[in-house]
Design brief:
- The chain is α/β, with parallel strands linked by helices.
- The protein has 2 domains: about 10-235 and about 415-430, Rossmann fold (3-Layer(aba) Sandwich), CATH 3.40.50; about 255-415, Rossmann fold (3-Layer(aba) Sandwich), CATH 3.40.50.2000.
- Helix content is about 40%, strand content about 15%.
- A 7-stranded parallel β-sheet has the order 3-2-1-4-5-6-7, with helices on both faces. Strands 10-9-8-11-12-13 form a 6-stranded parallel β-sheet, sandwiched between helices.
- Strand 1, helix 1 and strand 2 (about 55-60) form a beta-alpha-beta unit.
- The radius of gyration is 22 Å and the shape is globular.
- The two termini are about 30 Å apart.
């Protein structure tokens, strides 16, 4: 792939026998670990589970919301003011909630319009982990990229950092789709932590990314030497995400898993595609799984296009509900403008849902090359192309079944959490060596 010549030789992970290597004690750090919202929490839960099952000892250091971990994984909670918790983000805490200067600093950053969690988590992590550094063989940072992580590395501690995709892309797209100058100023302040993360990432010796495209973009956007990046895809829990054969597919039902409030996810283009299809055929309805504000631009777009009866916003759903919809739908769509990986794509494929994706970021890489034929791929940000692909899939059920069958084989062959753990371990040993 163009632009990837500098990737380390082990990028595609030619793993040696890991069973003969010594067992490790791993400090796994994540600034927010919600397992039901966002890839960081899912990654934390399943990767640590596999590491422990392979005989290693893992202790997770997490800020709220805390991850849901197997009982064999120790959790050390680093409480914060949790200023962005649902249902009251940007809340003003009571005076009695302030316990130390970290709390005060966290609140003042938020009051200035910044997102404080990567920084404030780093402060608390340094206080908790510094006296215990000798207990661990390696520290694995799950994309907090705080200055504390760099401090640990400078003290000679082996450090590995997972970067799922460059957050600079989120910042750029959010600014581009801002609806007013005031909103742009607010977003500029909110994403103030990005500069810190880029500075930290560029000085790390061992970075783990989830796709070749993401590795390339991390290098270009965050200044990380491509030779310091290894690549290993994340996995999917195929015991949870599987076809429910007792459920029949519902003609005309289209589903997507995306936050309506994040421009990166490209939901507006899927809504526009549904409007095109509603005029030409009118037999489709869309179910959106994922958080959204009542006043979000996407919801206003649905009303403006007269699609209120055809588009349903479910909000956050459980994994069980997600699997049910993937098993019921005629097709699933991932309309993202950019993805460093894409758990929703892999989860939909694991459930046997015929899939339409864009070419945003690593999506074509995740769903396989042209020979794999696991999904229809269209240009990102193109509502007409999405409409044509959806219409083609609905009109040709045999095509959908063929793609879904190929996709299930592709997922089971490539995306296991055991393989993800082996990739991480391979990099741990390199960092220690």
């Amino acid at each position: 792939m163009d632009g990837l010549v500098g990737l380390r030789k082990d990028t595609l992970i030619d793993l040696s026998d890991l069973s003969s290597r010594p067992k490790l004690k791993i400090a796994f750090v994540v600034y927010r670990g919600n397992p039901h919202s966002g890839g960081q929490g899912v990654y934390t839960r399943y990767l640590t589970r596999e590491l422990v099952s392979m005989g290693h000892e893992v202790e997770v250091f997490s800020g709220p919301p805390y991850p849901d971990l197997p009982k064999e994984v120790r959790l050390t909670r680093l409480p914060s003011l949790d200023l962005f918790r649902e249902p009251d983000p940007f809340r003003v805490p009571k005076l009695s909630e302030f316990k130390d200067l970290y709390d005060l600093g966290e609140f003042l950053l938020m009051a200035s319009g910044a997102f404080p969690e990567p920084r404030s988590f780093g402060w608390r992590l340094s206080k908790e982990l510094t006296p215990r550094l000798g207990e661990f063989d390696v520290i694995h940072d799950n994309q907090s990229l705080s200055r504390s992580i760099l401090k640990f590395q400078r003290r000679g501690v082996p450090v590995v950092a997972s970067i799922h995709h460059p957050i600079t892309v989120d910042k750029r797209l959010s600014m581009e789709y801002a609806e007013s100058f005031r909103q742009k100023v607010g977003l500029f302040r909110f994403y103030g932590f990005v500069r810190m993360q880029c500075q930290v990432a560029s000085q790390l010796e061992h970075v783990l990314s989830v796709s070749k495209v993401s590795a390339r973009d991390i290098s270009l956007e965050m200044g990380v030497d491509l030779r310091k990046i290894s690549v290993g895809p994340v996995g999917v829990d195929t015991e949870t995400f599987r076809p429910l054969l007792e459920i029949e597919r519902e003609p005309g039902l289209v589903v997507t898993t995306a936050s309506a409030d994040v421009p990166l996810k490209g939901l507006r283009y899927l809504i526009e595609a549904m409007a095109v299809l509603d005029k030409s055929r009118g037999d489709l309805r869309l179910v959106v799984m994922g958080p959204s504000r009542e006043d979000s631009p996407v919801r206003r777009l649905v009303e403006r296009l007269g699609l209120t009866a055809k588009v349903q916003f479910l909000g956050k759903v459980s994994q069980e509900e997600m699997v049910t919809y993937y098993s019921r739908c005629q097709l699933a769509v991932v309309p993202s403008l950019y993805e460093g990986f894409s758990l929703p794509s892999v989860e939909a494929m694991a459930c046997g849902a015929p899939l339409v994706v864009t070419d945003g970021g690593a999506l074509p890489e995740v769903v396989g090359d042209e020979d794999s034929e696991c999904a229809l791929v269209v240009r990102a940000g193109d509502a007409e192309a999405l409409a044509l692909a959806i219409s083609r899939m609905v009109d040709d059920p045999d095509l959908g079944r063929k793609l879904a069958r190929n996709a299930m084989y592709h997922v089971r062959d490539r995306y296991s959490w055991r393989r993800s753990a082996e990739t991480a371990l391979n990099l741990y040993y390199k960092a220690i060596g």
